[in-house]
Fold this protein.
Amino acid sequence: MFKKDPDLKPLSNLKNSDRKKLFAKVVEDYKVSNVPIDYLFPSDSKQGNFKSPLKISGTIYTDAESTPTWFKTKDSNVLPSIMTLWRYPSLIPIVLTNDMVIGKLINGADLMLPGCIPPFDSRCVKGSIVGVASYKQPNVVYAVGECLLGLSDVEETVGKSGVAVRVYHHFEDHLCQLAKITLKPPKEEEALETILQFQDVTSEQPVEEDGLHNNAEALNSEVQDETIEHEASDSNELAEVLTELTVEDVDMFFERALLQTITQDKISLPISASNFMNHILKNMPPIDSSLVTMKKTSWKKTSKYLKAMQKLKLLDLKGKGEDLTIISVASSDNEKVRKFVPYTVKSVNSSKQSQNKPSKDKLTILFYYKPNSCTRSFFNDNDKVTNVLYSQQELKNILNEYIRSKDLVREKNKIFLNPPLQEIVKLKEGRTIARDKIFSEFLKGFTINHKIIPINTPDEEVESIKIKKGNVPKVEIVTEMRIGRKVVTRISNFEVYHIKAQELANELRVKCSGSTTIGENIQSKSTEVTVQGPHEKIVQELLAAKGLSPAWFNVTNKLKAKKKRT
């Protein structure tokens, strides 16, 4: 429902009479009683109408901080947001799943029946509103939707099919992005505290809610005990390993590392074989890495290993020879994936991690390149695919290897352009180009894409961040004089860097000792923060402190005197 910007109209205060009507409706729909109205609808609640690009219209209710609390469409009842359920998780029944499925839901998928973990709450009947949470944190809801199946009667989900929950709203969707503060899911301990507080003011259905909570705790405890037992058995087995392992043992370690990758890592597909193997090696069971190498397997080569895993139906490949691309991995329907119990991997030295992962202490931007039609002959000549994204280093390696294999180096370190390269590198005359210039010209045959990684993003979440088309957008900083000879500095297009407007306005108000306002930029239709006074340098310093490079700023000073005509 909120996969795109809902185009929320300006908020207005919620009338007390309307607040009481909504509260009465919620009490009726969700069977709660003896709850103070301020618990569900604070006196400073606001409302605003929306109409999304998907032709869905309705009303969004927020608290004083503009954090969405409830929403409804013209055809639905009032539905709680996940922020409301973080405070009152026992308000609706919760369907449990695993972390891998939670990642799929956050990317916009519905919850399928095989991804659900029984037992189910008796309230999970067809048409009921339910939350979705991980079995590791059974009281922290990540999605809200409508139950499409009678889950209360389902005892086993393996081998069955169908959509269990149609998701209406999930964590990090555009409804969450309306909040002026940075949203972060609570920890399980915090969720348990809120349940106790909520039960103090509710008297209806205490047995059922306690039963649900106990079921979730029992399931969580059971899974944890099973994992601990499995890890203990793994440790005992590994302790018996001597200085050498058999080929079968090494093969087993590589197969288990693949299953660990499939079940625990968030991977953006398709992915090159080299990048995929980084996940495999990272997810090896806790054992001396010198004992487990590809050369000690029965496959000897990465390509043969991946093709063997394809025969086991654990992944699908595309490409020829050594140049392979993983286009899909096995789902939980696969028996090996379903029966696999994850283990704890040993931590990798931080100096080695930093070579392949973005820095956590600053905002990072990764660039990807998609081949255009003019590169088709070149990639066919290389037996490589054109429907995937490449990093700059991957393209540089491909080009250098192509130049070497085709013997294109000429005197004075110039590169001869054969027909496939001529289609990409356009020269006004001649067929040779300096080696230090060919790569920059070569990149012109590709469409640039980018991924913006916020500060302190966990490694497991980097893969799930969406890649966006085009180059990095620049933050617009404009200093100008308005009517009344008031000088202001306007900042817009900053939200793409995961900077909240309210946080930026608060910081500028303190640093600039001037008033700030939040509005809409007329030209770009994006959120704009305005601070009184000429403060372009302070704005740049503040954004730089958040990890932004000066190259990402577009600074305009309209106060500079224009040259007089002579």
